[in-house]
Predict the 3D structure of the following.
Amino acid sequence: MSKFVHLHIHSEFSLLDGANRIKDLPVRAKELGMDAIAITDHGVMYGAIDFYKACKKEGIKPIIGCEVYVAPRSRFDKEPNIDNKYYHLILLAKNNEGYKNLSKLVSLGFVDGYYYKPRIDLEILEKYSEGLICLSACLAGAVNQALLNGENEKAEEIALWHKNVFKDDYYIEIQNNGIQEQVLANQKLIRLARKLDIPIVATNDAHYLKREDAYNHEVLLCIQTGKRMSDIDRMKFDTDELYVKSPEEMTEYFSAFPDAIENTVKIAEKCNVEFEFGHTILPNYDVPEEYATHYDFFKKLCDDGIKNRYGENPSKEILDRAEYEISVIKKMGYVDYFLIVWDFIHYAKTHNIPVGPRTWFWCRFNYCICN
Ligand SMILES: [Zn+2]
Ligand SMILES: [Zn+2]
């Protein structure tokens, strides 16, 4: 393993904020002599699979993560001027269970917690913490914010809560990003970490690949915020250092804190998510007990559907056609797919929820099993 690994990186899937192309990241990591690299987009995991494949192609170890948004109160609270002040937090999947938990958290962030951003809260963070490594994130992290506000006790409380939940997998994150406030924050963060016996870890919150890409990133931010480069009051990062730095640059900057560098490698070694491709993963549909197989239940629904539309004695043409289509669905392994689609459409129809365009050829031939 190389001597430093980037654990906080934004790709193009941090929409209009990340200027790193997925495919360029593992290539650059390799060029710089690193053998692992993480993806931690803002609130989403859209890039995880592409990133995983791109890394494998280059012989680089992919670390799948996310920089989630944490609601200041519950994820259900959505009050102006209070609940739009969310915090950042880095989560990295250690294993496939961690990946599932992270996916769950990100989904709940959208389903329950969406308010300006997809937000999780401490309740579900604790519930789905298994298999995850947690880093305290950038200046927008909760610990950072408390420290910057001079609320040291509150910062300690927040850090201890995370330590209690994530145990040895909680790290205080210090960054080498050229932002003035960060220099001050780093000192406070290290002091807090030493006091509470929490390990520290160095990151660079990379939003673009090389220093010279900082300009492109600024343009991207202008598009996001609807501003022009000539606007004085636009949102911008006062730095051109949010790039994928070399292990040497990171090590030199944090030379007084070698543990922060060493811990990046330890974390990378702990992260071992493996994706399997090539087979369909469907949720299981529980068929009623009296049916021996999923196919039996599916066949019963089809038979009922045909009777509903064509009466007790459908013509031979209809029966032949139905038999042929049912056999194709069975042969192609789509029985469960149809049961799942039937399940949610059936639920909608029996709960007064309008159903949109019907799916596939079943419905075109007017003996849809959905009814
Ligand atoms: Zn952040
Ligand atoms: Zn970040």
User: Anything to note?
Assistant: The pocket of zinc ion (ligand 1) is lined by residues 67, 88, 137-138, 140 (CB under 6 Å). Residues 174 and 202 are 5 Å apart (CA to CA). Residues 294-364 form one domain.
